[in-house]
């Protein structure tokens, strides 16, 4: 079950990242984050009311609140990096955040077997290779790398926090709702501050109404990925769930190849193959 839900997480996050990266090339990153997360929050609110999730309120929601504060920073940095550089380069850099939940798993006493250790090494290597690597000089490229690494740390922290935010399905809905409300509040304040400094909140043509379905997809796919990851982490080793969930850059790179015709170099194809091998080793372990 852990492998299944973690792989579902990588698929959802990979598609959400691809959609977010495309949208950020048309609208400010803050606007993409706030609008997409607002839609996800509204849907989650309905689910919480329908399932009676309020009854699950408790101290664990502080983990969801913390994840909600960290998440927007990570997403904004990540989307800006995607807008500046090739998706196949930026996305794998963000997977370095997997070190955070893996470290948490080690602190909690998890000790993977030899097959799983090999799987972790092969999968992470594959993800990194799937992104290129490509090196280009110039200030923009350095900014892209910095933004990607900041987002990696943030995503890793969200991985660790959301896994601790609930223990039941209805509690998970409530935790995700709290996380998203916090996301929207933090992102909204950042957007307001950005506008006050003179940055545009909307593209030149006004609100991109035609992109509303895509914005909804990005928000809902992201929140669904958080949910599937939480289930994966609760039903198996955290480090295994985290590594399998971190395969999302392979999905992003393949989506960029399929929809944007970004070339998949030989080293990227090799990386995707290694990621698959690592996945099989983790599942077998």
Automatic annotation (TrEMBL):
InterPro entries: EamA_dom, EmrE-like. Keywords: Membrane, Transmembrane, Transmembrane helix. Pfam families: EamA. This is EamA domain-containing protein. It comes from the Bacteria. Residues 3-130, 145-282 form the EamA domain. PANTHER family: ACYL-MALONYL CONDENSING ENZYME-RELATED, SOLUTE CARRIER FAMILY 35 MEMBER G2-RELATED. The keyword Metal-binding does not apply. Belongs to the EamA transporter family. GO terms for cellular component: membrane. It comes from Streptomyces actuosus. The chain crosses the membrane at residues 28-49, 61-82, 113-132, 144-163, 169-195, 207-232, 238-259.
